[in-house]
Design goal:
The protein is mostly helical and 147 residues long.
Length: 147
């Protein structure tokens, strides 16, 4: 082999080894999942004193428990909306009914959550309310914009 061919072969070998190292170095991070909302809330609750922590846990559990049936209804309504969209011919009235139903369910869920949070903060100190706001900001990051 001439000198140029040896240099190209050696350069290719070095490049491929570097590429393999980069890929293998990133591989473990591909399988990591971001912490669940529950895990983020639990982590944030560590700042609270134990009685308040237990009360907030109960509140979040109540929100989850009370919201679950409604979330299931929202999912079923969403599935029905998607079915209507792909059905031929398109039924505009059925679509509008399902959208109205979806908006009503979401509004109910928001109202229930607002009432539960209001009940919770009425029994909290101002410091605990500030901690709650900080915790909710960290535990529930903003959704990406849909532009």
């Amino acid at each position: 082999m001439n000198k140029t061919l040896k240099m190209v072969f050696f350069g290719s070998l070095v490049f491929n080894l570097l590429l393999l190292g980069v890929l293998l170095g990133r591989l473990p991070h591909r399988f990591e999942r971001p912490p669940s909302r529950q895990a983020r809330l639990e982590h944030a609750l560590k700042e609270f004193p134990e009685p308040a922590r237990a009360r907030f846990r109960d509140t979040f559990e109540r929100m989850r428990r009370d919201g679950e049936p409604r979330d299931n209804q929202i999912q079923q309504t969403r599935d029905e909306i998607l079915r209507i969209i792909v059905h031929d011919p398109f039924d505009e009235a059925a679509y509008d009914r399902q959208i109205t139903k979806m908006n009503a369910l979401r509004s109910e869920r928001t109202g229930i959550m607002a009432t539960i949070i209001k009940d919770q903060v009425q029994h909290s100190t101002p410091e605990q309310r500030h901690m709650l706001v900080d915790m909710l900001k960290r535990a529930m990051p903003p959704r990406p914009s849909q532009s």
